[in-house]
Write a structure and sequence with these properties.
124 residues; alpha/beta; Transcription Regulator spoIIAA; 6-stranded mixed β-sheet; 3 helices; 6 strands
Length: 124
């Protein structure tokens, strides 16, 4: 093997996107991409998350997992973003999973009933 032609995949293993008030941390692994959200998922920050999720869900990733543990707040725009990603996933291989949130986001999911429409998995 020669240094100018590495045989290994040289894509970055992590990437961070900041769209105040939201930070999106993406970890790339062989079996899944883990998307960690920190801050607030609202009207201002949802376009950045939508772009990232569209890119991941239409790419060659067998599983995309969103971890909402770091979210402090989400509004109806944030819910719509997650629902749109879930719909895209169902139409193209069903790769998306969302780790059950806590705090305010969990209460919002309960009040709106969206937990029935999202591919939630328990936090371990």
């Amino acid at each position: 093997m020669d240094a100018t032609h590495p045989s290994e995949d040289v894509r970055p293993r992590t990437r961070t996107v900041v769209s105040n008030p939201l930070t999106i941390k993406i970890g790339f692994e062989t079996e899944a991409c883990l998307v960690r959200l920190e801050g607030e998922l609202d009207l201002e920050s949802t376009p950045a998350l939508s772009r990232e999720l569209d890119r991941l869900l239409t790419g060659d990733h067998p599983r995309v997992v969103i971890d909402l543990a770091g979210l402090e707040f989400a509004d109806s725009a944030g819910l719509q973003c997650l629902l749109a990603a879930a719909a895209l996933s169902r139409s193209d291989g069903d790769a998306l999973r969302i780790i059950e949130p806590g705090g305010q986001v969990s209460r919002l999911f309960g009040v709106t009933g969206v937990q029935e429409l999202l591919p939630l998995i328990p936090r371990t």
